[in-house]
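re: ur msg from earlier - yeah i can do the adenosine-5'-diphosphate complex, just paste it... oh wait u already did. ok heres what im feeding in:
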Amino acid sequence: MKILMVSSEAVPWAKTGGLADMVSALSISLAKLGHEVKIVLPRYYSINKDQLTLLPGGMGTPMGGVEEWSAVYTTEMPGTTKRNSIDVYFIDHNKYFGRDGIYGNQTETDFLDNPRRFIFFCRSAFQLCRKLDWYPDVLHAHDWPAAVVPVYLKFAERVSGSLGGFEKTVSILTIHNLGYQGIYSKDNFDYTGLGWDVYYNAGFEDFNMMNMLKAGLYSADKLSTVSPNYAEETKTQYNGFRLDGVLRYRRADYCGILNGIDNKVWNPSKDEYIPVTYSKKDLTGKAKAKEALQKEFGLPLDPKVPVIGMVTRLTDQKGVGDLFGPTYGSVWSICKDMDLQFILLGSGESWCENEIRGLASRLSNFKARIGYSEKVSHLIEAGSDFFLMPSRYEPCGLNQMYSLIYGTIPIVRRTGGLADTVENFNEKTGSGTGFMFDYLSPSSIYDTVGWAVWAWYNRRNDIEKMRKRGMSLDFSWEKSAQKYLELYEATQKTMGIVTAN
Ligand code: ADP
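and the outut:
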């Protein structure tokens, strides 16, 4: 199959979140399965074009009232072999991408011209295919910045009278976080070059604003999100960010496929950041990691006390209000009342960073590092006994999967991908892989951490079994890539498209 990934992020070139990891990892797995995958990205200012190859000739993209001219650069995805190489293309357009920041910067957190930047990017994906004379079977678009791709396909490129080439192409739109929708003034719509009938028929209209994700959700041939449970939750008013009605309407074409994890980077038997690697057959390396972690954070080197770890963006989505809220946060009481050590690595909202600094100065068993560190995040995953993730919502979540395979027991809220990957401890049978709660509140976090700490001191056998159960789980990308292939094939079938093989 020929697959074109259209995304605003992909590692190693541009990343603000899990989307970037997913696009590259999925592409690599699909290519390994024998499919022809290409990726198109904007050429952000931070991507050094000296390391890319310029394609001869420019590229004109017809937008409403203007033709935008851009250069196209290319390179191969690193770490792939000749047999399963992936061509990555970069749309170089100085007016839109010749500046610092992907979606915004310090002074302008959301660039005013974001709708135009990404509408242009979506349309340029089609022009790129024309330039390459390569037409994909599947256009796989990711999140709101690529959400107008399925709109162009359905209303401009696959219809009679178009320039042709995309008659047999189907579109998939994957939601990585429904909280971000690309809602802007409808004054930007003329720039799409589409008629105002499309504005209404494709579903851009949103209380007198233009909602790009919503139009993509109505227009894509099939929709997916990054875990089965998040697919269910987003169809409810509580978690639907006002688009639950659209997703219920599209329910027959909407599914959840769990993201995999990169087991070259996140693997306790190969991890380069921890003092001694380990596996479920021999956990001595884990004990060494705990010691190194306690040392790193200046805590007493005590193997008997449970260590609760956290690595997180400090934003409301992650439950930080209930953990660190100045008047009712639960971490203060957890650390005061329980015999444990609490270690946190994170950065984000400044009120929260300040609260955390305050807690760390008053509690001897609470240590925090404000910032971003790949190395420390690996040490926390390996060296902690429990990993806390009380997310308000979590489309997939990676950290709980890392925790499970590192033998670190997750304590999570039963939401999104957390509910798909963690199984609650059953005190009677000893089954389960983690500790879970349903309603996000300071007292439920307190009680559930308390439950885990109780089990640590009173149910050692069960704890050891839970660890090993987690370490036996398989979150490899191969499984997920296979499911995406099935989705691509099902889409072709639904659209009545039969490919040569
Ligand atoms: P989200 O994408 O919503 O932030 P995920 O759990 O899916 O949450 O993935 C977050 C990723 O970012 C994980 O790999 C996590 O370890 C990493 N991460 C988050 N904050 C930090 C930090 N301060 N330092 C290092 N890694 C971090």
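cool cool. The longest helix spans residues 114-132. ping me if u need the other ligands too
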